[in-house]
């Protein structure tokens, strides 16, 4: 396996002072709530939370000494998201760390005073979670995950391996990721997908997902894209298996997709985003106002190619493409 760092330059963030009043704690111990959409035992979840803890510790925060952290894992379940959001807000923490659109939306409906640092936000402006990326304007700030341009990147990578691709299906659950249909319209209007037809694949269950993937595969010039979605992330192994069974070239934003037998993954380094999120929590605990902390974009991306999956699909990965991969699974 080979690894190579992709680091893209990005501007820093500014902060102002007026949030000190909210950030006072009793006995000198601060309280942080962490509400995440994943499953705690999932390896990818552990990588992310470990990165957050390490980044937080490097800034001088020690769990059980000067900070108490309450963790909740909702496993992409809407009932658990509501239950745990209510619990975390009721704890009245100094800051909440959250990820995924459903979790962020739930917290948005419950508090306009507790600062919330978003780790992995998708379309926060379009969904009304912040006023703008440069000046969020409320109690939410953090880090974005993807934007429509990444879909164009996925199509480009798939074309390099399968030049005859004419259809690209995007798998998502509209109840958890309502922005995808709008993104597809925007991409098509800007002709960013070139000659490739974008196909929306809204699903709500495992059965619907299996049917949709099989239907996409009926045409041999099709490929599959798996973007950020709580629905997708807890089914990433199943999606990789369905793509292989239906002989569909596929790419996902999630690194574990390639580990589980998918053809490729390309997306932001989520561990790096969680590490950087710890920096925003630190700044807010020290008095920064989230309204003035810009929502930042990813500056580190990871590209993984699974050669075993390519061989099973009868595909040849160009050497030039392999040379750009952070990791090649053989």
Automatic annotation (TrEMBL):
<protein>
    <submittedName>
        <fullName>Putative ABC transport system substrate-binding protein</fullName>
    </submittedName>
</protein>
<keyword id="KW-0732">Signal</keyword>
<dbReference type="InterPro" id="IPR007487">
    <property type="entry name" value="ABC_transpt-TYRBP-like"/>
</dbReference>
<feature type="signal peptide">
    <location>
        <begin position="1"/>
        <end position="23"/>
    </location>
</feature>
<dbReference type="Pfam" id="PF04392">
    <property type="entry name" value="ABC_sub_bind"/>
</dbReference>
């Amino acid at each position: 396996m080979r690894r190579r760092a992709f680091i893209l330059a990005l501007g820093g963030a500014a902060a102002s002072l007026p949030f000190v009043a909210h950030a006072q704690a009793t006995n000198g111990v601060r309280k942080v709530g962490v509400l995440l959409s994943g499953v705690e035992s999932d390896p990818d979840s552990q990588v992310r939370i470990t990165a957050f803890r390490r980044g937080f510790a490097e800034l001088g925060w020690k769990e059980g000494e000067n900070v108490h952290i309450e963790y909740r894992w909702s496993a992409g379940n809407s009932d658990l998201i509501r239950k745990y959001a209510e619990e975390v807000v009721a704890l009245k923490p100094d800051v909440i760390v959250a990820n995924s659109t459903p979790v962020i939306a739930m917290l948005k409906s419950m508090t306009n005073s507790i600062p919330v640092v978003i780790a992995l936000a998708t379309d926060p402006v379009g969904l009304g979670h912040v006023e703008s990326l440069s000046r969020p304007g409320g109690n939410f700030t953090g880090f974005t995950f993807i934007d429509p341009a990444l879909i164009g990147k996925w199509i480009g990578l798939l074309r390099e391996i399968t030049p005859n691709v004419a259809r690209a299906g995007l798998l998502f659950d509209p109840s958890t990721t309502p922005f995808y249909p709008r993104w597809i319209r925007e991409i098509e209007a800007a002709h960013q997908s070139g000659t490739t037809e974008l196909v929306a694949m809204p699903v709500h269950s495992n059965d619907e997902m299996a049917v949709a993937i099989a239907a996409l595969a009926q045409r041999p010039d099709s490929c599959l894209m798996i973007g950020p979605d709580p629905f997708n992330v807890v089914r990433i192994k199943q999606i990789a298996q369905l793509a292989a069974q239906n002989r569909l070239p596929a790419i996902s934003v999630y690194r574990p997709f390639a580990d589980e037998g998918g053809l490729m993954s390309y997306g932001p380094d989520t561990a790096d985003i969680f590490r950087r999120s710890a920096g925003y929590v630190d700044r807010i605990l020290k008095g920064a106002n989230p309204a003035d902390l810009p929502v930042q974009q990813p500056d580190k991306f990871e590209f993984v190619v699974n050669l075993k999956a390519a061989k099973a699909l009868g595909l040849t990965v160009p050497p030039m493409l392999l040379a750009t991969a952070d990791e090649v699974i053989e």
